[in-house]
Design goal:
The complex is a heterodimer. Chain A is an alpha/beta fold. Chain A contains eleven helices and ten strands. The two termini of chain A are 32 Å apart. Chain B is an alpha/beta fold. Chain B has a single domain, classed as Dihydropteroate synthase-like (TIM Barrel, Alpha-Beta Barrel), CATH 3.20.20. Chain B has an eight-stranded parallel beta sheet with strand order 7-6-5-4-3-2-1-8. The chains are: A alpha/beta, B alpha/beta. At the A-B interface, helix 6 and helix 7 of A face loops of B.
Chain lengths: 301, 295
């Protein structure tokens, strides 16, 4: 008798989300199988994408081997973003770190104007994150959404403390929301349930929080794995969204990455590869050499 | 189902103050209210009772027995308080609780034998809390065999699988399902054995207003699987109505949900929908979040 390998067929489908418009757009999600279960039924129409991170101010605590590729443009976020595009990033991830009250507490209007300039200057999609200070983000992100009206960007982090005000602004100005919760599947679902009361599930990306290798990465890994399983296998409406792995910053904070370049690249690369395997749909990196390393690794046929 | 009324509990400020100040009325009112509400046992949960365990326990047991005629469940990890409590009981008490840990085997189980009482034995051992059904069964079989050797028969043993909060990130629902499964197969592996659970722990960490719904639904589910008794709040009328068969339509809905039957939620009342959604969380069918009723 001929042996036939069993192949699972799944019922859940991760929502496909478009970031940006026209030529400046990319799609993430859309898969109806578990990550890399090519032996099962289903497909993944949009393999994971990779974004490079840009800050809205000159970085204060980056090691020299990380700033080096951007040395000549690092004081100008627009030029820096263009450099990322040249270096082959699928998207630019702009972090408005200067707005953080603990950093420069710069104004929401200034940040919004900067965000728009960057969005207009590049020919790839833009992801914009506030500083992560939920109160300040509640001021900054609505202004950013308004300044970039209609551009269909991915904006976050939307958190449980500010989802109402930030979510509403993103909705009014036609953007996608990146919903961040602190490494907990139950809290992640709760935020999505609450956000979905007024915000379309088709425009939500899950940010489950990404920890670096050696600093809790395995928690992020199993959480992402679980989000995919619950979405794909049990068809939970509130977890069938693509996942963003915002990991570059976490990796380059580590002592190991700061110590020397090779170690840093590997730290970021291994973390990225791991979360890629866990099913992350878009991955945020800092070093362009990590980008080429990971692209080379993941594009092997 | 046998309900062990949980309301005399030292974690409640009023109770701990009443014990300290020997305020009989507070304690007696709580005991009477539970007895009137249909409790079968009154639990006296005094915690570790570090101060004057003998005298306090003795006072508490006799104070309660002055006004009610129910057996007591003596709930303490202090063996001295335990013995004083068991000694003071007029009816055959419940020793709550022993476990498979060495010190419990050496100090608590012999008391159960000495006072010829019923005894709660949890699945915990020196290795800790067994996480899944198989390891829970394995642990309890060892401890029950040990108790049998001491002369405690299966019918006097009330096994506690230890319920954990369903809201525990990621894991809680798996625990809830494991306890359901454990109760279901317990009779087959240990004939004549009884069972009990600390029910309200299932909803620990959940927003307060939502806790009763989880407790009630889980109680019905455990009841269906053969649970013999529960340490629970008899003053929660709805729970009592559910297990006494006064609201069979809700019970049926919970059973159908357990069986994975597809139901048209739009044909149900809001209250019925809440029970179905809650049961789906407790069977693990729907991922838990504090907003489980809202999606």
């Amino acid at each position: 008798m001929e042996y036939k390998a069993p192949a699972e067929a799944y019922t859940g489908v991760v929502r496909e989300i478009t970031i940006g418009n026209g030529k400046k757009s990319l799609k993430i999600g859309g898969e109806n199988m578990l990550p890399f279960h090519f032996f099962d039924q289903g497909s993944n129409p949009n393999p994971a994408k990779f974004a490079l991170e840009v800050l809205d101010m000159e970085p204060q605590d980056w090691p020299e081997h990380l700033t080096q590729p951007f040395k000549d443009v690092i004081a100008d976020p627009v030029k820096w973003a263009k450099r990322c595009e040249e270096l082959g990033a699928d998207a630019v991830f702009l972090r408005l770190v200067s707005t953080d009250p603990a950093v420069k507490d710069s104004s929401a209007d200034g940040a919004a104007a900067m965000a728009r300039k960057v969005a207009e200057a590049i020919n790839i999609p833009l992801i914009i994150y506030g500083s992560g200070d939920d109160k300040k983000d509640a001021e900054v992100l609505p202004k950013v959404a308004e300044a970039c009206d209609g551009m269909n960007l991915l904006i976050g982090p939307v958190q449980k403390e500010n989802y109402e005000v930030v979510g509403k602004a993103l909705l009014d100005h036609g953007h996608n929301a990146s919903a961040l919760s602190p490494l907990d599947i139950n809290l992640l679902k709760e935020l999505n349930v609450k956000l979905c009361k007024f915000f379309p599930a088709e425009k939500i990306v899950i940010d489950p929080e990404s920890a670096a290798l050696g600093y809790g990465m395995e928690y992020s890994f199993s959480l992402m794995e679980r989000v995919k399983q619950i979405g794909i296998i049990t068809k939970d409406n509130m977890t069938m969204m693509p996942i963003i792995a915002d990991l570059g910053g976490e990796c380059w904070k580590t002592k190991q990455a700061k110590e020397n370049k090779e170690q840093g690249l590997l730290w970021e690369g291994i973390t990225a590869l791991s979360l890629f395997l866990a099913g992350a749909n878009i991955i945020v990196l800092r070093h362009p050499e990590t980008l080429s390393l990971i692209k080379k690794t993941t594009e092997v046929k | 189902m046998v309900i062990i009324g949980e309301n005399i509990h030292v974690i409640a400020q009023t109770v701990s103050t009443a014990i300290r100040e020997k305020d009989a009325k507070v304690i007696q009112d709580l005991a009477k209210a539970q007895a009137e509400a249909g409790a079968d046992y009154i639990d006296l949960n005094v915690g570790p009772m570090k101060k004057d365990p003998e005298e306090n326990m003795q006072w508490l047991a006799s104070t309660v027995q002055e006004v009610i005629d129910l057996p007591l469940s003596i709930d303490t990890m202090n063996p001295v308080a335990m013995e004083a409590g068991l000694k003071a009981c007029q009816k055959r008490p419940l020793l709550n609780s022993a476990s498979g840990k060495t010190d419990s085997k050496e100090q608590m189980l012999p008391l159960a034998q000495k006072y010829n009482c019923n005894v709660v034995i949890s699945v915990i051992t020196d290795k800790g809390m067994p996480p899944d059904v198989d390891s829970k069964i394995e642990s309890i079989m060892d401890t029950v065999a040990y108790a049998n050797e001491l002369g405690i028969p299966n019918e006097d043993i009330w096994v506690d699988p230890i319920i954990l909060p369903v809201s525990t990130a990621g894991e809680g629902q798996r625990f809830a399902v494991a306890c359901l499964e454990f109760i279901k197969i317990l009779e087959d592996v240990l004939p004549e054995i009884k069972s009990t659970v600390g029910l309200s722990n299932v909803s620990n960490g959940v927003p307060n207003e939502l806790r009763p719904l989880l407790n009630r639904t889980y109680l019905v589910m455990l009841d269906r699987n053969g649970l013999y008794s529960a340490i629970a709040d008899p003053l929660d009328k709805e729970s009592m109505n559910l297990i006494k068969g006064k609201v069979p339509e809700i019970v049926q809905l919970i059973y159908k949900t357990m069986d994975g039957e597809d139901m048209d939620l739009s044909s149900l009342s809001p209250k019925e929908v809440e029970y179905v959604k809650t049961a789906k969380v407790l069977t693990g069918e729907n991922l838990y979040s504090d907003a489980w009723l809202e999606s």
